[in-house]
Every structure is written in C-alpha cells, then in structure tokens.
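Deliverable D4.2, example record:
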Amino acid sequence: MTIVRRGQARLRGLVAAGVTLLLLAGAVSGCATKPPASDPEALVEFQKRNDPVEPLNRYFFEVNRFLDYMFLKPVATVYRSLAPTFVQNGIHNFLNNLRSPVILANDLLQGDFGRARITTARFITNTIAGVAGFYDYASHIGYPRHDEDFGQTLAVWGAGEGPYLVLPLLGPIPPRDLAGYVVDFAFDPLTYVLPANDAEEVGYGLKGTGLIDARARSIESLDDVEASSIDFYAAIRNLYRQHRAAAIDNRDDDAADTTLSAPR
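Output generated by the structure prediction step:
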C-alpha cells in the first residue's frame, strides 16, 4: 500500500502541474489573435501553426533556452569531453534498457505484437548478455531498438495532437504528449520500486543522466539548427512535429535520442 500511495502522490503532482500550466496557457490564449476571414492566406498559416498560445510558448521557450545555455549544455559538453565514447554508449544503452517496460506496454496497447516480441527479447538479452543493458547485444543478433510512448499510442488510437505547447523544463509537449508523459510515468515500474526502497534520489539521478546523455548527443545538430534559422522557435516547432510524426509512423526507431521532446 505504501508503494501505491507514494506512486499515486507523485502521479497526482504531475497531473496537477500539467493542468495548472494548461490553464495558464488558456488564460493568455487571446494574445495570439486569429486573422480575419478576409485574409485567407494568413488564416491558413495560423491554422497550420496550431499555436494559439504562441506568446506564452515563446516565453517558456526562452526560459528553457536560458537554462540550457547556463546549465545543461555546459554539463553535457564537459561530460562528452571527459567520458570515453564506450562509457557514453554504455550509459545510453543502460538508460534505453530501463525504458523497456514502458515501450513494451505501448507496443501491446498499439496491438503491435511483433514489436512487443522484439522489445521483450531485447530486454532479456541485454539485461543478461549485455550486463544490465550497458551493452546492446540484442541489436547485433537481429533485435533492433525502437521506442514507443503513450503519446504515440494515443496518436495510433486517433487522438489529435492538440495545440502546440511549450512548458518549463519539459520543452515542446502538446496536450496529447503531455498526457502520454503522465501515463508513461505510471507505466514505469521504477515509479513504484524506488519509493518503496527509499531510493527516490536514484530516480532523480537517472532522469538527470538521461537529460545529459540526450543533450550531449544533440549538441552539433541543435547548434546547426540555431545557426541556420531565422526563427529558432519556429524551427524547433517544425522539427518537433516532424520528429513526432516519424515516431508515430515508426519511421524513427531511435526517437529517444533528442532534446526536442520531454525527458522520458
């Protein structure tokens, strides 16, 4: 019961934070004025952006950008400079292996039993032969990695993305993906195992390590996007949607390797 109560308390906290921020977004939605019907081109562009709270999103985008510039990117740069490549790959593989239960749950919910079989085989193989997942042995014997989350599951079920949304620390995360983030948190066995053993700090450490790992792997790519973009915010918005569309269609089998989406 203690495990369940602690897990429920953490889950309620996430839901409350998400609802609060969504209400805040709704409160300022009037800031993005819809073009009049007499300007069809502007109206089409407005609908294409699907970004009704753009002023608030841009504000949170700059907050996240500042935090990245001041803290995350420097730490990721140092990490990449000091840690040998095999250590970075080992940590990356270990974190991926820990996500296997969440990926498996979403494989099953999407009715993709072939990928569910691969996820199960990967988890067993890498946990045993890959030394707790630090070595991705499964990929070398015909079980390539893929990623799934409940936001993708909702999309497969026909749920729309909803308006574009950027939240502090989480980054781009429209309502469908925000709901998916909360549900995946509930799917993760560590949500219950760590509090039951008074090891919440381990969970925070894993989240932090995941952020650093993802950021270290995207330093050049995001720098290139920023350098080549007239509007960095709009470029990230487009890239995020392209990335999510590819993940939903199973065209991006390493979807976790990005800082465009919420930390998983």
